[in-house]
Structure to design on (264 residues):
């Protein structure tokens, strides 16, 4: 429902609110993948927090029976919505990975802080700037790790992760070098689940911090940024300020194909 809401919202904005010349920033398929991942992530965060802190925070206020019903429902929703998140994660990876490979332009962008600290400074960038690339790779790596540990929790007998990982680390000698000794290379399914649960929670909080920063910049932190993923259309002037090299590429493709971007 959240995905459909934003796609429909985007259609309304294209038809009614744009006043200047626009360029298509993200197509409907790209926005669907983004909002599928984002919407499912919101639900996963809420249900995950209920499972993690519900006993301490909610039982004193709602009682054991009410919390039991909520916890069972949250667990069911969490386990099933996770598939939507993983599908969205895979979609986003394959749609944007080539455009998020770091390059020399990113160093220039970082050198001026993306223009965030000085008014009127807009370093050149392609479709994704260095800051967006950091968010992309953080989501892919942290989200992928969370997905793997979640699958291990769903299928502890079929997908044990930590015993094999610890065995590989022991072979390098690194755990002993930094004072952890020899890590356990054989575990029961229950021990595997304990490690997976701990890792799942820690990495989830890391991803949550990244996403909160992303939400701020993509909403109130940068004027016009939400339009890119809301309607898919952005003002050409905004695009030239923040992604000038990408606009040049778009215009070059239009010129070669004989098409132009219509004014709204």
């Amino acid at each position: 429902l959240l995905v459909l809401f934003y796609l429909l919202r985007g259609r309304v904005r294209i038809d009614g609110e744009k006043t200047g010349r626009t360029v298509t920033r993200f197509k409907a398929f790209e926005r669907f993948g983004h909002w599928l991942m984002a919407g499912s992530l919101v639900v996963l965060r809420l249900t995950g927090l209920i499972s993690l802190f519900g006993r301490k925070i909610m039982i004193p206020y709602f009682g054991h029976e009410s919390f039991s019903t909520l916890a069972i429902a949250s667990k069911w929703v969490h386990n099933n919505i996770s598939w939507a998140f993983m599908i969205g994660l895979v979609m986003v990876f394959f749609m944007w990975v080539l455009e998020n490979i770091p390059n020399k332009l990113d160093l220039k962008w970082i050198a001026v802080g993306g223009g965030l600290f000085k008014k009127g400074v807009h370093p050149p960038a392609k479709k994704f700037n260095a800051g967006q690339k950091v968010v992309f790779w953080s989501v892919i790596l942290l989200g992928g790790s969370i997905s793997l540990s979640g699958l291990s929790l769903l299928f502890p007998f079929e997908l044990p992760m930590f015993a094999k990982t610890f065995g590989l680390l022991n072979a390098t000698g690194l755990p002993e070098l930094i004072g952890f000794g020899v890590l356990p290379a054989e575990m029961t399914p229950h021990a595997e689940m304990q490690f997976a649960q701990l890792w799942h929670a820690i990495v989830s909080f890391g991803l949550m911090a990244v996403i909160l920063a992303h939400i701020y910049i993509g909403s109130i932190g940068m004027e016009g940024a939400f339009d890119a993923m809301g309607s898919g259309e952005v003002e050409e002037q905004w695009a030239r300020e923040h992604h000038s090299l990408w606009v040049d590429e778009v215009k070059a493709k239009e010129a070669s194909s004989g098409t132009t971007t219509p004014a709204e």
